Amino acid sequence: MSNIKWPGPGRIVRNISRIRRLDQSPILIGGCGRTGTSLMSAILDAHPEIISFPEETNIFESDRMFRSPRLNRYRNLIRFHRFLVRIDIPVTSRRWCEKTPNNVRELEYIFREFRNRVKIILMIRDGRDVITSLHPLRKGYYITVERWIKDTALTLSYMNHENVLIVPYESLILHFEYTMRKILDFTGNDFDPKVLEFTRFSGVQSHDAFHGQKLKGISSGSLERWKDDKHKERVRLLTTNAEAMEIMNQLEQYQKQFEKDA
Q1: At residue 192, what are phi and psi to the nearest 5 degrees?
Q2: Residue 119 to residue 153: CA distance in whole angstroms
Q3: What's the predicted TM-score (pTM) here?
Q4: Cα separation of 82 and 97, whole Å?
Q5: How far apart are CA 56 and CA 98, in angstroms?
Q6: Is 123 helix (H, G, I), strand (E, B) or coil?
Q7: Is the CA virtual torsion 142, 165, 169, 4 positive or negative?
Q8: Which pLDDT tens digits describe the chain residue by residue (262 residues)?
Q9: 29 - beta bridge partners?
Q10: Where are the domains of the chain?
Q11: Are 49 and 97 a contacting pair, CB within 8 Å?
């Protein structure tokens, strides 16, 4: 259950009135774990018109759905409102943003739920960096090769969907302003320089996915960590997998296309 504490009655009433102003299509973020989904959520929260949930809701889980679409719609509406009334909603907010990596696996349901009135941002990242990401709280690696293949292949299958923008993590790091302008153009929000200073303006300074660490700024030090010799055998699992290497080639081509005007 959510770790967000319930505020006092006054703020609940205020938030209910502000929830009514969230009339623009929501933004949902997904993709394989360790691809920058949490970072993207925090950056977007720095935009005056966007309010991001400070944790994953896991609301869209098909195995927990009712058979009735109407019941699901009521259930989801109630759950979203339970989250929203507990967070500080700025008066300028016009849309909400939620990030759960597994959203990528539930997109067909999400499109039906919102009747296509939704913007989806899917993150992708070099598989070598993803599978060599070490879990900060327990021993071992975070993401398996198989999960990266499954989630990334699924992500790429939505490459031409009008409601989906696929964002390479590397582009976000190396061409930050260019990438954010492209994202905000996709979502229909005017560019605001506050997103470039997101560590200062974002309300998502901590997140479950940060594992107790605070929000950090953009750094190229997060790239190509897989080159450390300690990950040699781990990387070999991916580079000797034909399906994984085909996806890596697709990512490289997509990133070039994404950055063509950078």
Answers
A1: -130, 125
A2: 20
A3: 0.91
A4: 15
A5: 7
A6: strand
A7: negative
A8: 456 666 666 666 777 778 888 988 999 999 999 999 999 999 999 999 999 998 888 888 766 666 777 788 777 778 888 888 888 889 999 999 999 999 999 999 899 888 899 999 999 999 999 999 987 777 789 999 999 999 999 999 999 999 999 999 999 999 999 999 999 999 999 999 999 999 999 999 876 666 567 899 999 998 999 999 999 999 999 999 999 999 999 999 999 999 999 8
A9: 99, 121
A10: 9-258
A11: no
As a CATH number, domain 9-258 is 3.40.50.300
32 contact partners, CB below 8 Å, separation of at least 6: 101, 104, 123, 124, 125, 130, 143, 147, 148, 151, 152, 155
CA 187 to chain centre: 14
Helix intervals (H) in 85-210 = 107-113, 127-131, 145-156, 169-174, 176-187, 198-201
**Token duo for residue 90:** 């700025």
Q: How many whole angstroms separate alpha carbon 122 and alpha carbon 139?
A: 28
From 160, 161, 163, 156, select the one nearest 187 (Cα to Cα): 163
Give ∠ CA 160-176-171 in degrees, rounded to 5. 45
Q: Give the HSE-up count for residue 198: Cα atoms under 13 Å, Cβ half-sphere.
A: 27
* 3-state helix vs strand vs coil in the chain, percent to 5: 50, 10, 40
Sequence-distant (≥ 6) Cβ neighbours of residue 179 within 8 angstroms: 167, 171, 172, 262
